[in-house]
Specification:
The protein has 174 residues and is of the alpha+beta class. The chain is built from seven helices and four strands, in the order E-E-H-H-E-H-H-E-H-H-H. Strands 1, 2, 3 and 4 form a four-stranded mixed sheet that branches.
């Protein structure tokens, strides 16, 4: 591919505790991320599949993604831009230690941790989920608007997913 293709490459991470003891060899597997589905357009639009500290981007991607709008997560935005305007590649090897501690902004909790949160506070879980979903939708609309205003071609699969999302939300509102 040419240097003009927006590109994001990222890797897996090893989850460790405050003392760097390994909690899990793979962040992706610990989070129960379906590696086969992580780059499906509908997944990229509504869920973050990129961990920024383990990502590299090229200048072509930065030209599409900057200036950075107010988004839910900067790494999610870069992943969406790469998927919409170029390519995303995953290196299935842990290249970074991901320290899990009580002050993580998002953090890795694994399935049991997420289930415990839901059981402890269903309302809190629902409110957090709704807030993340709405922030994600806002991000998709920004992505769509950027592509239209700058005349950036969007990959067919992402365009179809965005159109399906627009259509689906329009039908449910009517």
């Amino acid at each position: 591919r040419g240097a003009g293709v927006p590109l994001l490459v990222h890797s897996d991470l090893r989850v460790v505790d405050d003392d760097l003891a390994v909690l899990h060899e793979s962040f992706a597997r610990y989070q129960d991320i379906d590696l086969g589905a992580r780059y499906r357009p509908e997944r990229m639009l509504l869920a973050n599949t990129v961990t920024g500290c383990a990502a590299l981007v090229n200048a072509a991607l930065l030209r599409c993604a900057l200036p950075m709008p107010r988004v839910a997560m900067h790494d999610w935005w870069l992943g969406q831009c790469a998927a919409a305007f170029g390519e995303v590649h995953f290196l299935d090897a842990a290249t970074v230690l991901y320290r899990q501690h009580s002050s993580n902004a998002v953090g890795a909790s694994g399935y049991s941790g997420r289930a415990a949160l839901l059981l402890r506070s269903p309302r809190g879980w629902w409110e957090d989920s709704a807030r993340r979903f709405l922030a994600g939708l806002r991000q998709v609309w920004i992505l769509r608007a950027r592509a239209l205003s700058q005349g950036i071609p969007v990959a067919e699969s992402m365009r179809s997913a965005i159109d399906a999302l627009w259509h689906g939300l329009g039908e449910s509102a009517g």
